[in-house]
Amino acid sequence: MLTRRIIPCLDIKDGRTVKGTNFVNLRDAGDPVELAANYALQGADELVFLDITATVEKRKTLAELVKRIAHTINIPFTVGGGIKTVEDVQVLLQSGADKISINTAAFHNPGIISGIANMAGSQCVVLAIDTRKEDDGEWYVYLNGGRTKTDMLCYDWASKAVDLGAGEILLTSMNHDGTKQGFALDITKRLSESLPVPVIASGGGGTMEHFADVFIKAKADAALAASVFHFKEIEIPDLKEYLREQNIPVRI
């Protein structure tokens, strides 16, 4: 069985790490360079950096900050936010990113998925999907940092993106984001069991049991969280030890 990954996420706004609930009510969570270095030391398997207002503010990702973080860590580093072209990707890879997370731009221009995959390999392309379960029971894709609803169903978009070359899916449930009530097990399980690429579950991790559930019940390959790590509600070494006791393979 493949080792399950624990991934802290740095949501960046104005050069600081922030965290909200259901994509709103953001509060400061600290200096991203310091947090990144600390997570690498704690044994995080990877790190994700999302410039959460780059798309809305119509600007590029903070390449200089990416470079500073990359110099302080020795674990795989995924960067997203404001990426619209293959040239944007090249800048971030040269700044130290290992993988690129794309969301809104890929939805509007699916060809960018193939473009990045052809240039850097599918393993470099992480498709981020922000999804919300609506009253009809279906999970819909949202864009622009969760501000814009589409008529596309989450599974259909994920499947199409994988066909185009996405090598990994970062699935964030907007219903669960920041609530610490547990991950969205149903949609995570559907994607994990149906797609031939790894699925990272995001949104709702609040206890160690929640992480175990998303690995055991929803078959996720990785679990991403932010505030529980930023505010030291869960320490990564303790979480990994707990998961190991649940017979979930993790890198200690």
UniProtKB/TrEMBL annotation:
GO terms for biological process: L-histidine biosynthetic process. It is found in: Cytoplasm. It catalyses: 5-[(5-phospho-1-deoxy-D-ribulos-1-ylimino)methylamino]-1-(5-phospho-beta-D-ribosyl)imidazole-4-carboxamide + L-glutamine = D-erythro-1-(imidazol-4-yl)glycerol 3-phosphate + 5-amino-1-(5-phospho-beta-D-ribosyl)imidazole-4-carboxamide + L-glutamate + H(+). The gene is hisF. This is Imidazole glycerol phosphate synthase subunit HisF. One of its GO terms (molecular function) is lyase activity. SUPFAM superfamilies: Ribulose-phoshate binding barrel. Heterodimer of HisH and HisF. Belongs to the HisA/HisF family. GO terms for cellular component: cytoplasm. InterPro entries: Aldolase_TIM, His_biosynth, HisF, IGPS_HisA/HisF, RibuloseP-bd_barrel. Its main location: cytoplasm.
